Amino acid sequence: MRRVGSLFDAIAEPANLRLAFCRAARGKRHRPEVIRFAATLDERLADMRIRLLSGTFPVGRFHQFEIHDPKRRIITAPVFPERVLHHAIVTVCEPHVERWLIADTFACRPGKGREAAVLRAAGFSRRFPWLVHLDVRQCFDSIPHDLLRARLARRFKDQRLLDLFAAIIARFRGEMGRGLPIGSLTSQHFANLYLGALDRFAKEGLRAAGYIRYMDDLVLWGEDQEGVIARAERCRMFLQAELGLDFKPARPRAAAHGLDFLGCRIYPTHTTLSRRSRGRYRRRVRLLTRAFQLGLLDGRSLQARLEAAAAFARAANARSWRFRTAVLQSLPVSDP
Questions:
Q1: Which residues pair with 265 in a beta bridge?
Q2: Dihedral sign, Cα of residue 193, residue 197, residue 200, residue 202
Q3: Entry pTM
Q4: DSSP 172-194
């Protein structure tokens, strides 16, 4: 793929910055920082454009918080003006990254997503008897800055844009030279592009017919155990040598025994919720029910959040109706 240029001015265009504000503010209009930004929107966007074009827009301002979903993660969320910048960058650059990514990578892509990935994985599990499920070890924390910048330079040739990328990357653990902040929109797309090199190695170099990646979570399928092991080892060698990363230990398994992937348990014949997802759904319903009983949620809010939890549980044709019904029936809701 040829490198693309002349994108920086498009990022700083007033119409693109206004669109970026709308996308960054979606679902967050009630937050004080968004209200303050919107109160003087034209002036804010004009100032952002001037600073971008002059190379003086500040990046690297963020706040951190911890979540457990289900494992502990530190979320590093940029301040709102920088979120607007990240949306402006992604709006312009994403189509050029899209054309380079393979069809069987599903995270952070229009028209893809978790449900499409699970359905594709179910199709591969019907076709191939063996698989190995691989997970990049501490992917976001471990991506080397120098190698990431080099990969970005293979796709983009506008030096002002590359300098902006470099500034965003360096503001997080720049002294360590590794890592991208979880919670930043550009981090998701940087990581997706970076691991796209592994996708192409697997599909074009190894001719892997059965292969899926969802961010740092990937699966290889094959006709026999030895072939799956060999391809996984070749992928590990590429990941270490070319991208400075590694996989967690993994063993091949028969597809008939099931694959835990993206919250589902995938068999050649059907898909169910994974044990972890069942536990999360049960806890979520109990917490929402308790909040309703304490008067912290009204009936409409309770219904909306229960529907959102159910949407995750029934996605990708997962068999979960009896389980969800049993959970709801075990937790009768009374008026607060």
A1: 260, 272
A2: negative
A3: 0.89
A4: TTTTTTB---TT-HHHHHHHHHH
